[in-house]
């Protein structure tokens, strides 16, 4: 019997965490976030030092992705807008007469380093979309925006985000997703 070359079999990566097993909770004082660690230290630091302060000041709201009682990811949201000139003309609505579209900005978005590649980011974007749909029943909102880190651009593109046409930032890439519904 010929031997099999197992090195030719692609690595399937870590097992995905089912979306139904991830709970999303509004950040509160009682949450233990001390074990959360992201590959981007500033995102770990934000959750530990600034997320609750910004939430108390009504600047941004943070949600935790919880799995088996542990924080495995988080995202912070705030109100935003995007100028019509910065989106692809195909995404523009001819009948919309204003120069800005109302949006929700993904201000922070991070997955615990031990859970990367396990579907946590997809789950968080699904939760964000659900929140945006709910918000749109109370206040105008038709676009999601994010200032992506360069190493996250492909991740956002996989989920329908596009680069904004005009970019002034140097450390991040302004992106948007028009079709949130």
What does this structure look like?
A hairpin with a 2-residue loop joins strand 2 (61-67) and strand 3 (70-83). This protein has 3 helices and 7 strands; from the N terminus they run E-H-E-E-E-H-E-H-E-E. Strands 1-2-3-4-5-7-6 form a 7-stranded mixed sheet, sandwiched between helices. The protein has a single domain (17-177), classed as Gcn5-related N-acetyltransferase (GNAT) (Aminopeptidase). By secondary structure, it is α+β, with helices and mostly antiparallel strands. The longest helix has 16 residues, at 41-56.
Number of helices: 3
User: How many domains?
Assistant: 1
> What is the CATH superfamily?
Gcn5-related N-acetyltransferase (GNAT)
Question: Reading side by side through the largest sheet, how are the strands ordered?
Answer: 1-2-3-4-5-7-6
Radius of gyration: 18 Å
What is the H/E order?
Answer: EHEEEHEHEE
Quick one: CATH class? Alpha Beta
Largest sheet: 7 strands, mixed
Helix content: 10-25%
What is the 3D form? globular
Unreliable stretches, pLDDT < 50, 5 or more residues? 1-9
Overall pLDDT level: 91
Strand content: 25-35%
The termini sit apart by 55 Å
Descriptive labels:
alpha+beta; Aminopeptidase; seven-stranded mixed sheet; 3 helices; 21% helix; disordered N terminus
Topology (elements, then pairings):
Elements lengths: L22 E4 L14 H16 L4 E7 L2 E14 L16 E12 L8 H16 L7 E6 L4 H6 L3 E2 L9 E5 L4
Parallel strand pairs: 4-5
Antiparallel strand pairs: 1-2, 2-3, 3-4, 5-7, 6-7
